[in-house]
Amino acid sequence: MPRTTDGDGTPVPQRLLAAATRLFAEQGYDRTSVQEIVEAAGVTKGALYHYFGSKDDLLHEVYARVLRIQQERLDHFARMDAPVEERLRGAAADVVVTTIDNLDDAMIFFRSMHHLSPEKNKQVRAERRRYHEQFRALIEEGQQAGVFSTATPADLVVDYHFGSVHHLSTWYRPDGPLTPQQVADHLADLLLRALRP
């Protein structure tokens, strides 16, 4: 049975994900071997295959862990007892901050998604669709209440915002002039201005 933690108590799956994330970001998914991942994590191939069935599973988990966080946080904003503008603005800013906080994961995913197996690709698309549909539901709620303009279809508004989010990994730099929260505030404000009646 593989050890579940190392000397400092870090669980093996987290060590494998950390090593895979670093190597995928530095070298690219297709140029990173399973051997390099296990060596960087300090475990055996047996340990990797105990927790992840394949390198494909590691790539999927790199993305899925961020999406899980974002989905939990969107669920929180959607359930809040607050005006819809406040809930949408919070959700719009939060997805920017959590993406920047996990920039390597986002970059790896959008650069390497095409390497996923058809089954995993389908699963990821379903997970993303669920997130986008819940985000769109907030926009539609505001449109139906007359708080947001109906001039632009909600689907297009969602695509507009997430187009910006998905490109963060191509231009955002931690040592740049804007903090993650400042970028989030600007993009959330742009979204709400676009929806103003």
Describe the structure.
The chain has 197 residues and is mainly α. The chain is 73% helix and 0% strand. The chain has helices spanning 12-27, 34-41, 45-51, 55-79, 84-101, 103-112, 118-144, 154-166, 168-171, 180-195. Helix 1 (12-27) crosses helix 2, helix 4 runs antiparallel to helix 5 (84-101) and helix 5 (84-101) packs antiparallel against helix 10. The longest helix is centred in the middle third of the chain and has 27 residues, at 118-144. The model has no long low-confidence stretch (mean pLDDT 91).
Characteristics:
single chain, 197 residues, Tet_transcr_reg_TetR-rel_C_sf, HTH-type_TetR-like_transc_reg
Radius of gyration: 19 Å
User: Biggest β-sheet, characterized?
Assistant: none
**Residue ranges: pLDDT <50 for 5 or more in a row?**
none
Question: In one word, what is the shape?
Answer: elongated
- Mean pLDDT score: 91
Specify the helix fraction band: over 70%
Oligomer: single chain
Total DSSP helices: 10
Strand portion, in percent?
Answer: under 5%
| CA-CA gap between termini | 61 Å
Order of helices and strands: HHHHHHHHHH
Helix-and-strand structural type:
mainly alpha
Number of strands: 0
Keywords: DNA-binding, Repressor, Transcription, Transcription regulation
InterPro entries: DNA-bd_HTH_TetR-type_CS (IPR023772), Homeodomain-like_sf (IPR009057), HTH-type_TetR-like_transc_reg (IPR050109), HTH_TetR (IPR001647), KstR2_TetR_C (IPR041490), Tet_transcr_reg_TetR-rel_C_sf (IPR036271)
Domain HTH tetR-type: 10-70
Pfam family, one: TetR_C_24
